[in-house]
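BUG-355 | component: ligand-complex export | severity: low

The export step for magnesium ion jobs runs without errors, but we want the raw record kept on the ticket for reference. Input record follows.
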Amino acid sequence: MGPGGVGKTTVAAALGLAAAQRGRRVIVVTIDPSKRLAQALGLDPAAGHESGSIVPVHGPGGVRLDCLMLDTQRVFDEIVRVYSRDADAAARMLGNPIYRATAQHLGGALEYAATARVHMLHAEGRYDLIVLDTPPTANALDFLEAPARIQELVGNPAARFLAGTGRIGLKLIGLGGGVLLKTFEAMGGGSFIAELGVFLKEFGSVLGEFRRRAGDLAELLASSETGAVLTTAATDFSAREAEAFIDVIVERGMRVDGIVLNRVLPTLAPLPPPPVLRPAVAAQVGEDAADAAVQALGSAYLGARMQSERAHRIWLHLRDRYPTVPVALLARRDPPPSELEELVVMGAQLLEQSA
Ligand SMILES: Nc1ncnc2c1ncn2[C@@H]1O[C@H](COP(=O)(O)OP(=O)(O)OP(=O)(O)O)[C@@H](O)[C@H]1O
Ligand SMILES: [Mg+2]
């Protein structure tokens, strides 16, 4: 977990690989990985991999794990197939134009699908470890409460009533406006409202049945089998956000298994003194440009040192604040990781620091 762009998917993949190397049966469920990461994991759609399917990944030294790119629509389709009253009801829902156009755009649908997918994988019992990458939510509550929220939206009679009152109501039930309007235009008003009513009623009862038989999604997250790993950038702002995440997670009864300070610059040895540095620089850039180059080098160096010192200070602060939680530093790589081998190295570095 963690805010946008801090390295959640990278860390999820690295941790999954590290556990697989220790002989555990692992699956990593990723959410919208960057192209580079998808390629590193062999999930590249250009290679013919459908999102939503489980893809075996083979790493160096015979390491093996499964990966899957979350496909919200496919997760909902699966829930509809399994938890509808009967095959006819399932077929009707799967063919319902409103369901097709909007289910995956309900506010919180992504979080719902992610948690539900993990739930299904857990029930199958094929894995020792399921690593769930999380979507870039602004705060932990958005993620944790999304499943309950979506259940309430489609199950709440008031929302269904409002849905009958037109556009304002539709906004209130959290459906993306643009998508809905397009469907509305394509279907014509009258049948749209009728189909919407059917969709909300039936979809609500399918999700209700899923919850009744599979248990509350939040329960698995709060069980002793689940732990959260927070990823943060090594800036004060990002670290504060991470702390806010942790507070919410802990309040909800979840365990925090680790914090990763990502993209940390290494501690730099001091620059050589000017009498040593200047001749070396002059040999590279010429006598005329040497003074300016030495100065530029000095300030770049200072900036890098300040960043790495800040990371160290944040690391100390987090260790102090959460004495029982391992806080790991992950070095910034340049260029960013694009090979499986690099993710394996990063995973090993993370595990080493959690020992
Ligand atoms: N330690 C690192 N060194 C260099 N680049 C990194 C490192 N960690 C992550 N990156 C790069 O930073 C970018 C963002 O990382 P990643 O996709 O893992 O973040 P995210 O938190 O999952 O993002 P989003 O919130 O969009 O899901 C990627 O291009 C990734 O390759
Ligand atoms: Mg990501």
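Assignee comment: Attached the raw record above. Strands lie at 26-30, 54-58, 64-69, 129-132, 227-233, 255-264, 327-331.
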